[in-house]
# Entry
Amino acid sequence: MKPTGEDVLVIVDVQNDFCKGGALPTADGHEIVPVVNKVARAFENVVLTQDWHPLGHVSFASAHPGKKPLDSVDMPYGPQTLWPDHVVQGTKGAEFHPDLDVPHAQMVIRKGYNRDVDSYSAFCMVDGMTKTGLAGYLRERGVKRVFVCGCAIDYCVGGLALDARKAGFETFIIDDATASIFPDGSAVKAWAETQDAGVKKISSAEIA
Ligand code: VGL
Ligand code: ZN
# Structure
């Protein structure tokens, strides 16, 4: 497949905290970075997403006395999995991985900046209502196909791919450019869910 002006590559959350040594590391975040860089060179249109939480964010276990990471709390929008504090606005952990080399990226879209609602997909907060504007942006740019990679299939990559399908885009996830938080758990489920929704799983070798 040769990407054209009607294609976009969305690079999800390749941030220090989601890579080795970070606060909420994926199993393989540091390994995907060179693959992401290589794939990105084939795309004219590249969008970066950046998870970007204020201190005391609702998804932080530390904001819920007596709770620990991976516990769940009931929020008005449904169950919220709790995480260690991660990608706090303005910190080193929130910065893109230093080896990420995508100078031609056209837009950075931040999400998760509302203290009281989490956001996995960069299209929409998890309440299902608060949109980021990404779908409108892509439509105005004439994008038809969305290619997704980054961190992590279980949460933000999977969520974004499902929303891209819902918004009517043909959607692909690039397997070897995508990291997992729980490779043998939630990642397996997310691959199944996205494929059931019509998202196609491809490898970086298929993009030239
Ligand atoms: C993510 C959990 C919490 C992700 C972000 O980028 O996949 N996962 N925040
Ligand atoms: Zn987060």
Q: What stands out?
A: The mean pLDDT is 97.
